[in-house]
């Protein structure tokens, strides 16, 4: 075992073969990027933000999946697996039905009313300007604190091992090499059955040599359980299965990044097919990140599972714990030179893929919802230029936020990320849910209901940064409000927002049937008389291409149909 008093950068040795691999990879990516720019110039807002609405189902599904494969999974989910087992995976598999909900329920309405951005839809559904403005500003703020800064922070862990430069590309390499990497990691620990046994024995040597009687440093007894105790656990099952539903609706059905992928579909059939593909792919993180993270704890318990603040500070620079380094440490320790460089390139590619998705969606919201409010006659060229400039501004703001994030994330990036989303997501998801299915919901109800619930979440968030999370073995002296699990706080936010929205909806005037045309689930198929070419194009996009739908269903459902045929043949 390496000396834990050495710094993280000291026990990583980068081979010249890794440098060569990264250099070649970077060169290929740059060449492909230049070729793509020359081959297809995007001269309109629709071309730039929605890929000319010409995408087919498989690229859409892969893009939805790739947009979510970044720092929170590489560093966060694998770190959570190293610290507490498979429990964090519940958030990934719980997302699958909501990805399907995006394609079957939300996208048909978004396409029918012809919107570019989510705040634009809110204005069409509820009327007025303040809700659209509030959501636009909030969306950009959330991108900074929950996405861009998190990706940058995780990238910094890899940069400590490299030279100070990074890269971007697609997520194809990460799928292939993660599969190989998982097999190598499991081989090192003796396979999955051996992992289940050895994980429970993966305890730092400092804990074994001490006389402590608490559970600090030992794996959780429920490490191999997805549904955990509702009171004394890190992921209580009522929160993960029930109270997290509004947050999942926000993240998977109404977040600009996910919606924008599906809005680029050539028709609704391909949008739905993309959701099916993405749902299949969401099974993979268990094998790509959870199992390697648990293997890292078995192989390197003194570093990954350290509990002594001084040792953790020397290992990874975080006195609260070092579970976040599980995945990158495993890469640098068990892979051979050259292959290690390819894996690092793939990890950086996934991080940068997510970053480009976030930047594109944020620039869409800023240009379409904020800039056009002040520059009503802005040309398409001006919108494209502004959209690119705002990316630099967002990156600068995210860098400023990183030190604040580090002070409040404790030892697990995954829990920090989930807590952030639970602080703002439930009221957002509820506003969309009620707007879609209850025509009586009004603009004042939506605005004040969302604000009331999110004020509760923001209060919890501010207190999280103000009070340090106690280290293992010490008494938790934080206020009671902070000791309540963040998923239960999410339930409180939902209840407050629902009460305010229902009450104000009955006290204010609802919108007319004409105003609700094509903006709710019940009115999505209403005919809208218009000579506007854009509206006529929407009619074409809404058309269900039966031939495409047949191709999609036979492709993505083939494993199930083959299995059923096999069972019938076996029965006969």
TrEMBL record:
<feature type="transmembrane region" description="Helical">
    <location>
        <begin position="342"/>
        <end position="362"/>
    </location>
</feature>
<feature type="transmembrane region" description="Helical">
    <location>
        <begin position="50"/>
        <end position="75"/>
    </location>
</feature>
<dbReference type="InterPro" id="IPR038377">
    <property type="entry name" value="Na/Glc_symporter_sf"/>
</dbReference>
<dbReference type="Pfam" id="PF00474">
    <property type="entry name" value="SSF"/>
</dbReference>
<feature type="transmembrane region" description="Helical">
    <location>
        <begin position="486"/>
        <end position="508"/>
    </location>
</feature>
<keyword id="KW-0472">Membrane</keyword>
<feature type="transmembrane region" description="Helical">
    <location>
        <begin position="131"/>
        <end position="159"/>
    </location>
</feature>
<feature type="transmembrane region" description="Helical">
    <location>
        <begin position="416"/>
        <end position="438"/>
    </location>
</feature>
<comment type="similarity">
    <text>Belongs to the sodium:solute symporter (SSF) (TC 2.A.21) family.</text>
</comment>
<dbReference type="GO" id="GO:0005412">
    <property type="term" value="F:D-glucose:sodium symporter activity"/>
</dbReference>
<feature type="transmembrane region" description="Helical">
    <location>
        <begin position="279"/>
        <end position="300"/>
    </location>
</feature>
<feature type="transmembrane region" description="Helical">
    <location>
        <begin position="383"/>
        <end position="404"/>
    </location>
</feature>
<keyword id="KW-1133">Transmembrane helix</keyword>
<dbReference type="InterPro" id="IPR001734">
    <property type="entry name" value="Na/solute_symporter"/>
</dbReference>
<feature type="transmembrane region" description="Helical">
    <location>
        <begin position="445"/>
        <end position="466"/>
    </location>
</feature>
<dbReference type="GO" id="GO:0005886">
    <property type="term" value="C:plasma membrane"/>
</dbReference>
<protein>
    <submittedName>
        <fullName>Uncharacterized protein</fullName>
    </submittedName>
</protein>
<feature type="transmembrane region" description="Helical">
    <location>
        <begin position="165"/>
        <end position="187"/>
    </location>
</feature>
<feature type="transmembrane region" description="Helical">
    <location>
        <begin position="95"/>
        <end position="119"/>
    </location>
</feature>
<feature type="transmembrane region" description="Helical">
    <location>
        <begin position="20"/>
        <end position="38"/>
    </location>
</feature>
<keyword id="KW-0812">Transmembrane</keyword>
């Amino acid at each position: 075992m390496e000396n834990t008093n050495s710094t993280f950068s000291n026990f990583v040795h980068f081979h010249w073969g890794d440098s060569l691999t990264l250099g070649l990879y970077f060169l290929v990516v740059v060449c492909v990027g230049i070729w793509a720019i020359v081959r297809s110039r995007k001269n309109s807002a629709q071309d730039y933000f929605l890929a000319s609405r010409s995408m087919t189902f498989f690229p859409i599904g892969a893009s939805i999946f790739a947009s979510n494969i970044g720092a929170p999974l590489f560093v966060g989910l694998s770190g959570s697996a190293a610290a507490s087992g498979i429990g964090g995976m519940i958030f990934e598999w719980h997302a699958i039905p909501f990805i399907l909900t995006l394609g079957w329920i939300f996208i048909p309405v978004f396409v029918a009313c012809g919107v570019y951005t989510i705040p634009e839809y809110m204005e069409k559904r509820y009327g007025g300007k303040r809700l659209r403005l509030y959501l636009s500003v909030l969306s950009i703020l959330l991108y900074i604190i929950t996405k861009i800064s998190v990706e940058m922070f995780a990238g910094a862990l890899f940069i400590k091992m490299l030279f100070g430069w990074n890269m971007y590309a697609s997520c194809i390499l990460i799928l292939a090499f993660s599969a190989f990497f998982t097999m190598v990691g499991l081989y090192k620990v003796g396979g999955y059955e051996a992992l289940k046994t050895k994980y429970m024995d993966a305890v730092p040597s400092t804990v074994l040599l001490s006389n402590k009687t608490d559970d600090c440093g030992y794996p959780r007894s429920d490490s191999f359980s997805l549904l955990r105790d509702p009171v004394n656990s890190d992921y209580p099952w009522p929160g993960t299965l029930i109270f997290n539903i509004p947050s999942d609706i926000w993240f998977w059905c109404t977040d600009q990044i996910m919606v924008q992928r599906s809005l680029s579909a050539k028709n609704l059939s391909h949008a739905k097919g993309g959701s099916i593909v993405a749902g299949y792919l969401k099974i993979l993180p268990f094998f790509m990140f959870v199992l390697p993270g648990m293997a890292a704890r078995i192989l390197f318990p003194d570093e990954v599972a350290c509990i002594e603040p001084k040792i953790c500070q020397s290992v990874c620079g975080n006195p609260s714990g070092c579970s976040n380094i599980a995945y990158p440490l495993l890469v640098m320790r068990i892979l051979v030179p050259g292959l290690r460089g390819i894996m690092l390139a793939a990890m950086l590619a996934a991080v940068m893929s997510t970053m480009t998705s976030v930047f594109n969606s944020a620039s869409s919201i800023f240009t379409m919802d904020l800039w056009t409010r002040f520059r009503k006659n802005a040309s398409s060229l001006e919108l494209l230029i502004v959209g690119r400039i705002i990316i630099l501004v967002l990156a600068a703001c995210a860098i400023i936020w990183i030190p604040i994030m580090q002070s409040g994330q404790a030892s697990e990036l995954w829990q920090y990320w989930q807590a952030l989303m639970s602080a703002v997501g439930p009221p957002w998801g509820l506003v969309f849910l009620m707007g879609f299915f209850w025509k009586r919901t009004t603009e004042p109800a939506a605005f004040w209901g969302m604000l009331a619930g999110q004020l509760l979440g923001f209060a919890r968030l501010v207190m999280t940064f103000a009070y340090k999370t106690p280290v293992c073995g010490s008494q938790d002296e934080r206020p009671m409000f902070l000791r309540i699990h963040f998923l239960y706080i999410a339930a409180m936010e939902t209840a407050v927002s629902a009460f305010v929205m229902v009450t104000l909806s009955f006290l204010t005037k609802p919108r007319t049937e004409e105003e609700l045309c094509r903006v709710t689930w019940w009115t999505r198929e209403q005919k809208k008389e218009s000579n506007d070419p854009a509206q006529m194009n929407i009619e074409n996009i809404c058309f269900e291409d039966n031939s495409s739908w047949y191709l999609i269903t036979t492709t993505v459902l083939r494993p199930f149909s083959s299995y059923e045929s096999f069972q019938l043949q076996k029965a006969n």
